[in-house]
Amino acid sequence: MTDESKINPTSRTIELDEGDRLKEECGVFGVFNHPDAAELTALGLHALQHRGQEAAGIVSFNGTRFNSERRLGLVGDQFSKQSVINRIKGRSSIGHVRYSTTGGTILRNVQPLFADLAGGGFSVCHNGNLTNAMTLRRQLVSNGAIFQSTSDTEVILHLVAQSKHARFIEKFIDALRAIEGAFSLAALTNKKLIGARDPLGIRPLVLGDLDGAPILASETCALDIIGARFVREIENGEIVIITEDGIESLHPFPKRKPRPCVFEYIYFSRPDSIVGGRSVYEVRKNMGRQLASESECDADVVIPVPDSGVPAAIGYAQASGIPYELGIIRNHYVGRTFIEPTQQIRALGVKLKHSANRMAIEGKSIILVDDSIVRGTTSVKIVQMMYDAGAREVHMRVASPPITHPDFYGIDTPDQRKLLAATHDLEQMRDYIGVTSLAFLSVEGLYKAMGYESRDNANPQFTDHCFTGDYPTPLTDQSGESTPPHQLSLLAETG
Length: 495
Known about the structure:
Glutamine Phosphoribosylpyrophosphate, subunit 1, domain 1
């Protein structure tokens, strides 16, 4: 919950809060045995830019040596010049876009990470969060490991390096058996491209093919941008080993029912991606339709909070019969570093990114549809903008259940005390945001939108702990226990 002292109840002027939206996790991409591997990886990362905007990196192998470029900033800004691509030319490569869920972004934490091991070079990048990383890190350091970053991904490098197994893939499996939490990995050696997904399949990973060259990617939209064919999803608990001899699939973990993160459908994945055989766009429209059936409202127009609220708002409008309008126009060209030197300028911060379309709003009762509410401060600003543009009533509808628990698997959520729904009941939230009415999609409605009759409480179909508190893995770092579930301390950074 944001400090109430920052809010003037009369003017409702609120400081800009960049932490009020869920932050994307990270994205991985890999290419094996293609002459344009580096260029293709840069394009794939560009398609995955929505998963992390703070840093990007590519590591390639050209047959004789590994080359690495890791940079802060957007893919298009850092990897658009041919001179940069020429430095990482190779027939195989992996890449990563990053949003750090804790701490500051510094170059030494940018992935992919690389190390020269006894058996040769090894590079790895990671989407997710290892929930026992700090416990493992302390053990590794006590055994003499020297860490060069605060990334949990580096734990994997050291585990592989210290494994007593003879063959590399056995070392890799040995390392994965030691870690807990959520992970999708792309790794590169001088002979192999490797993909791995955690035993529950919390984080996504897909396999594609481009004219015979295997591709790994976090989402199918990254395959589309390079014209690659979707082959299949990497299964939960699966390791794929790609060599010149073909693709080998291993399942070294005990078989478990998959529990992918439901937030991939609600917010993280790009709408044009296919996740778990489902169109993300269609699922989000279904969430809007289900929301309309659960919380009918007499209003003049349905207005999305761009961009993530758009598909749900379309679905809500279709189900309710209420016209859909673009009542908020988003400015896509505002950077995170825009200077806000005074309180007066800072109070205008929301208008840097969103502007009201007065002609669609003035004098009307509107339904404002968003994908989620975290702290609620951005919702306050958006709602006030609607009233300032002449809205008669503002009814807010949220296309996901209330977020009541923090995430420990790679999503940047604040601690529980700062989650609006964890500290306020529905009426208090309505009053805080300043809307005429407020309603969320129910947990059961969320599952119906996903194509299920209901949530299987005994064996849930998705990882949905942010709404239910049902964490699917141990939280060792969080609990301080050394056996089942883990979370990273505030000193560490995640992939």
